[in-house]
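Subject: sequence -> structure tokens, single chain

Hey, anyone have a minute? Need the predicted structure for the following. Not urgent.
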Amino acid sequence: MKIILLHDVAKVGRKYETKNIADGHALNLLIPKGLAIVATPAAVKRVEKMKAEDTVNRKIQEDLLFMNLKAIDGQTIELSEKANEKGHLFAGIHKNEIIAAMKAQKHIDLLPELIELDKPIKEAGERVVDIKLQDKTAKLKVVIKPAA
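Reply:
Had a minute. Here:
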């Protein structure tokens, strides 16, 4: 069955790709969960339009971030997470938590792929996270305080 992916799906493909998938996998998993749609001519046109809009929005967001990269450099955001007495966090800090904190505290939207974080942060304290856009890099200080 020929489908168009609406989200990135592990071991299947990336968003907006057209794939030939086994009927059972498409009908029982991907389509009911809203991860894909059947690739009809009308759906292909609709997805092409969505892809173009997504590209334009991403470009606008990158341009805004490029202009604000100097403003981000050296900024500090604070997060409060549950931790044990040794400072080890119960849940790691991922890119999405950093993005949400940046938006809430500094009113700046970031894309997850711009944040260079090899693995989740699992200890309280200060960390410097790189935000890389094209050939420019900004340093963002993330302060993680253990919650009471």
